[in-house]
Design goal:
The protein is mostly beta strands. Helix content is 13%, strand content 54%. Strands 1, 2, 3, 4, 5, 6, 7, 8, 9, 10 and 11 form an eleven-stranded mixed β-sheet that branches. The longest helix has 20 residues. The radius of gyration is 17 Å and the shape is globular. The N and C termini lie far apart (39 Å). The relative contact order is 0.13.
């Protein structure tokens, strides 16, 4: 587990090497960024890969940054992302699994061209937060749970 607390901002892709050398990979555990914004891509490109674990961002999550040449790419295939907001200046968010929880009603994110979600993805606002999940996950969880109950009954 890693925590970045009370920085003004966290930047991934600040230099100008011209590649995607700046990256964060979360495949388990927790990454907490509190009291600051996360800029993914500034003068260079930034890459975030979230395939497991939990990432909590208590602030703005920006793909790219205004006035900069770099862009941000997020590849999410699993895990959980908690954030206040996701905005796009220059970049793309590929959502192929896991769960995203955002502050406020942000259900319109599914219609954004930069938010590339797998078919069947849903966004639900509960009055406080928006939860985004790929619909097939629900079915898999329900069938998996039903299968466990079935195995338990046979014993």
């Amino acid at each position: 587990s890693v925590a970045f607390n009370n920085y003004t901002e966290v930047r991934v892709g600040f230099g100008s090497s011209g590649g995607t050398n700046a990256r964060i990979e979360v495949s388990g555990g927790t990454l907490d960024i509190t009291g600051s914004a996360l800029y993914l891509g500034e003068q260079d490109n930034g890459l975030l890969t979230l395939s497991g674990g939990i990432m909590t961002l208590d602030g703005l999550f920006s793909l790219g940054r205004g006035g900069s040449t770099g862009g941000g790419t997020d590849n999410m295939t699993g895990g959980t992302l908690f954030a206040d907001d996701i905005v796009q200046v220059n970049g793309v968010f590929h959502f192929d699994g896991g769960m995203i929880s955002l502050e406020g009603d942000q259900t319109s994110i599914l219609s954004e061209t930069w938010f590339d979600a797998m078919e069947g993805t849903t966004a639900t606002f509960d009055g406080t937060r928006t939860v985004i999940i790929p619909e097939p996950t629900i079915g898999a969880l329900l069938f998996g749970f039903a299968g466990l109950l079935g195995l338990r009954r046979r014993r």
